[in-house]
């Protein structure tokens, strides 16, 4: 009898230990499943936020690229000139990524660097993200052969026109010599670009200004020293727009 009782007690203990082990295993698995659900939820949330952020960023960055530039511009009759979009990397010194106010003007500049190309000027703006030697840029640069490079979206501020950075589009123009006079190809592209931008933003010739008109700086040099040439330029812009009305 005594041996039988011992066997029964031993069996009961083993069953109790197995039951405790089974419950502990079930509890461990339940905690693991809960942890995995939490991890999955957090990761899904991060991926969702990243996807939304990527979409917003791509729209903001690409709004001035060829695929986006004419969206909502069905009423523009002036043809868009050929623009090589080479947007600068967002950085504090040449493309701060700050949104502009409503565009109220177009500011014409000259590079003050005779013989330099549009690409060289654009690449200089880009280099400022590393050198941080100054803060300067432009929405567009027009080269000696009439090529147009876009550096900063028109919806973003460029560092070109001092206290008018926030409500203007800036255009830097290359020139072959110290006189600051533009080549015929540069001049032609400038007329076409300014005409297109004027219609895009609902501006008239009074809204086309020189850097000189903002700060008194001798820029663009040839148009400051030759007022008649400046007035003729604005007339040429008006005539170009009228061709497509």
From TrEMBL:
Enzyme class: hydrolase
Domain of life from the UniProt record: Bacteria
Molecular function, one GO term: N-acetylmuramoyl-L-alanine amidase activity
One Gene Ontology term from the biological process aspect of the record: peptidoglycan turnover
Domain N-acetylmuramoyl-L-alanine amidase: 91-221
Transmembrane residue ranges: 39-60
Entry EC no(s): 3.5.1.28
Chemical reaction(s) catalysed: Hydrolyzes the link between N-acetylmuramoyl residues and L-amino acid residues in certain cell-wall glycopeptides
Chain spans, region Disordered: 1-31
Cited InterPro entries: Amidase/PGRP_sf, Amidase_domain, NAMLAA_amidase_2
Pfam families, alphabetized: Amidase_2
Keywords attached to this entry: Cell wall biogenesis/degradation, Hydrolase, Membrane, Transmembrane, Transmembrane helix
Protein name, per record: N-acetylmuramoyl-L-alanine amidase
Species of origin: Murimonas intestini
